[in-house]
């Protein structure tokens, strides 16, 4: 039986972790802000905000742990050789170039200067593109409010609010339930539950 090759395993594990962390990280950058994501029950490829966060973090940790193993156990001598030139054993030009590049990016991130500021502006624009009068919650943390709370804010009686939801074939247990839980149980968004209660139509 062929001996298990741990070097191949670390390389392949890093590859799959890098792909997953990179893709999920991009999704987290362009997804709606938390309040909008929860309000709309936003999903991408079947995963919501918390799902993508749960996917990103463990693979980022895997990259850190397995990447360290890959460097120290299998590539340390090669890596150290990059610090010096083969011809005269002086500090290599590539080392200085990489260090300068690192310092510039690090400084731009701390001072909010280009190119880091361009990246952050792009992320902000992507997130803000989800926010509109239609997608914005009517009041802060609206998804965690109960039917009773919404009734007090809108003047719609609790019984009538519950009846409106049930008329749409949705299940409601009690007025103390938050619309987020009602939405989850009925596989719709909190926004849809709110629209049912207030009789606001999405399609005039």
Describe the overall structure.
The protein is mostly helical and 204 residues long. It folds into 3 domains: 1-81; 85-132, no CATH class; 142-198, no CATH class. Helix content is 64%, strand content 0%. The protein contains 10 helices and no strands. The chain has helices spanning 6-30, 34-40, 49-74, 76-81, 93-111, 116-128, 147-154, 158-167, 179-186, 190-198. Helix 9 packs across helix 10. The termini are far apart. The mean pLDDT is 89.
Shape: elongated
In terms of DSSP E residues, the strand content is: under 5%
**Multimeric status of the protein:** single chain
Mean pLDDT: 89
Overall tally of structural domains: 3
Give the topology string: H per helix, E per strand.
HHHHHHHHHH
- Please tell me how large the radius of gyration is: 26 Å
Helices, by number, come to: 10
- Major sheet size, sense and barrel closure: none
Low-confidence stretches: none
Cα(first) to Cα(last) distance is: 69 Å
Q: Which range best describes the helical content: under 10%, 10-25%, 25-40%, 40-55%, 55-70% or over 70%?
A: 55-70%
| Record field, number of beta strands | 0
Give the class from helix and strand content and strand pairing. mainly alpha
